[in-house]
Amino acid sequence: MQHRRKFLKKLGLFSAIIGGKQLFAGLDADQPHIYTNNAPNNGNKSLTGEDANYPKNNDVQIIDSDKIINKKSKTTTELLITTWNFGKLANEAAWPTLSGNGYILDAIEKGINFTELDPSERSVGLGGRPDRDGHVTLDACIMDEMGNIGSVVCMEHIATPISVARKVMENTPHVMLAAEGATEFAVNQGFKKQDLMVPDSYREWQEWLKKSEYKPTVNIENHDTIGMIGMDKNGRLGGGCSTSGMAFKMRGRIGDSPIIGAGLFVDGEVGACTATGHGEEVIRVVGAHRVVMEMRTGLSPQAACEIAIKDIAKKLEKRGKKWNEVQIGFIAININGEIGAYSLQAGFTYAVRSYTQDEVISAKSLYQ
Ligand code: GLY
Predict the structure, then answer these.
(1) Where do the domains of the chain lie, and which CATH numbers do they carry?
(2) Is the pLDDT of residue 64 over 80?
(3) Catalytic pick from 225, 274, 276, 349?
(4) Nearest CA to 330 among 292, 288, 296?
(5) Is residue 225 annotated as part of the catalytic site, yes or no?
(6) Verdict on whether the full-model pTM lies above 0.85
């Protein structure tokens, strides 16, 4: 908490309220106005086998929900797992809510807000890298244990898209809002519009413009999407994810993170999963849903994550793509509080927070 306060103070966010109504008084005045709609347009540059051990999935046995509920451990307690190293601080921001008997989505929103508002994290929220035309566009989604969902895609000017996604879930008859409509909705809900480009992102973008090569970087600075899943004292599962997406992406590009089923899926009777990495590959296998459905058949979170990654590897190979140019990571939990994590290649980390654990762990991977 002390770290968080210091960080907010540095930003001048003395009156920031993390949660429902974001009123970032003083922030606009402190932020350099470097966002521009007149950025140079770089044209329409194009975006740049069978595994014998692969489990066959023809006769999927769907385990009855009641049986799954009966398997739930009476000793289940509060738990958070979050993608990448930055997950540790996000967990720290979320933990007081969770350990204070709070609701899982309140904890998740607080945790993700922390990373969204950190301008030094350049793949999420404020300070996220822009698209190739200089627009910082954000994606996020949130899901509870009952199938309530909310999502914003390609939203500009609002630093905390996870909170806007939650408002979509709670205050609209819809599940997704996009682009200007999402920003307009956010403003109507009390969120403050602001410039999201920070000087470092601007400089990186200017540097990128010299060659304008679209080449996603694997494990970029050991982070990407923040995806957080967890369980509260009452055994309620929930999840959220938030990202600025691929750096210097095409205008309008959407990744997996705001797409329920791809970047995030929660089944209150089974478990939860979230994804990070190259969103196009996650969408192709509807990754997070795939992992949760594998858990529904009775597999552990670890085995389920491994199956989804192997499926992605298989599809990459079939399409003649190189695995070492792609990174995907999944983290998952089940209702018994078991954890799984797996990535396509080495370098993916995740942070675990419970009463007995507070650490960042290096995930096992298919390729080293
Ligand atoms: N996983 C983030 C993205 O592809 O946008």
Answers:
(1) 26-367 (3.60.20.30)
(2) no
(3) 225
(4) 288
(5) yes
(6) no
